[in-house]
Write a structure and sequence with these properties.
With 214 residues, the protein is of the alpha/beta class. It has a single domain (2-212), classed as Rossmann fold (3-Layer(aba) Sandwich), CATH 3.40.50.300. It is built from eight helices and seven strands; from the N terminus they run αβαβαβαββααβαβα. The chain has helices at 2-27, 43-54, 71-77, 96-103, 147-150, 152-157, 176-186, 203-212, and strands spanning 31-37, 60-66, 83-87, 113-117, 134-140, 160-164, 191-194. Strand 6 (160-164), helix 7 and strand 7 (191-194) form a beta-alpha-beta unit. Helix 1 (2-27) runs parallel beside helix 4 (96-103) and helix 2 crosses helix 8. It is globular, with a radius of gyration of 17 Å. Bound molecules: guanosine-5'-triphosphate and magnesium ion. Guanosine-5'-triphosphate is lined by residues 37, 39-45, 72, 120, 164-165, 167-168, 196-198.
Length: 214
């Protein structure tokens, strides 16, 4: 019983700070996305591909979240884009306080589009508002078409689903229509893109969708 109370208090405090983050991000003219997926589904690859297409059209910045290392931040830095790495030291998700503190390092930079790459995990990030305008969930074809049914919260709470690694479909027992039907059974308004960060298939459609948000 007391555990439930503690958890509720943590989430209430998180939501309070998330709302302050969101006001600050919007006041500063930013559109903010919280990218969530299992480890290795292609969050950083998607950010890299998006930067390659959009970097001359808008000012992009990235907050990276990982349990350990700044490897993902190094990949973004190599593209000349401002990036801050959060190392959670074991925690399986980002929270609004961590994002608030990370954003302090970007506050003097002109940004239109802020990506927040969450820690690789389909469960815990679903419960934590970071102050984003939308959550984007990624699954890759190697994970199996049942994942929306097994991890419904993040599919319910996201506005967009990217199905990544479609280049691997010929080698897998994965049915894209099943992923889409399962995802829409959880969240009928989920906008879905099929992409490959390796071949770039579908990346322009995704980037055009992002451009249409401005
Ligand atoms: N075949 C194929 N491989 C991909 C694709 N996208 C990403 N990868 C590979 O998948 C691996 C993981 O990609 P990342 O972008 O690092 O994934 P991530 O979700 O950021 O991983 P974490 O941050 O560790 O959770 C890398 O070896 C990528 O090259 C794709 O569309 N097709
Ligand atoms: Mg990554």
């Amino acid at each position: 019983m007391s555990l439930i109370t503690v958890e509720r208090k943590i989430l209430e405090k998180n939501d309070e700070i998330a709302n302050i983050n969101r006001e600050k991000f919007r006041f500063n003219g930013m559109f903010t996305m919280n990218l969530v997926s299992s480890p290795g589904s292609g969050k950083t690859s998607l950010i890299e591909q998006t930067i390659n297409v959009l970097k001359h059209k808008m000012k992009i910045a990235v907050i990276e979240g990982d349990v350990q290392t700044n490897l993902d931040a190094q990949r973004i830095d190599a593209l000349g884009v401002p990036v801050v790495q959060i190392v959670t030291n074991g925690s399986c998700h980002l929270d609004a306080m961590l994002v608030r503190d990370a954003y302090q390092k970007l506050v003097n930079i002109d940004i239109n589009l802020l990506f927040i790459e969450n820690v690789g995990n389909l469960v815990c990030p679903a419960a934590y508002d970071l102050g984003e305008d939308m959550k984007v969930v990624i699954i890759s074809t190697t994970e199996g078409d049942d994942k929306p049914l097994k991890y419904p919260a993040i599919f319910h709470n996201s506005r967009v689903l990217l199905i990544n690694k479609i280049d691997l479909l010929p080698y897998l027992k994965c049915n894209i229509d099943t992923i889409i039907n399962n995802a829409h059974s959880i969240n009928p308004s989920l906008k879905i893109f099929e992409v490959s960060c390796s071949t770039r298939e579908g990346i322009d459609e995704w980037c055009n969708y992002l451009l249409s948000r401005f």
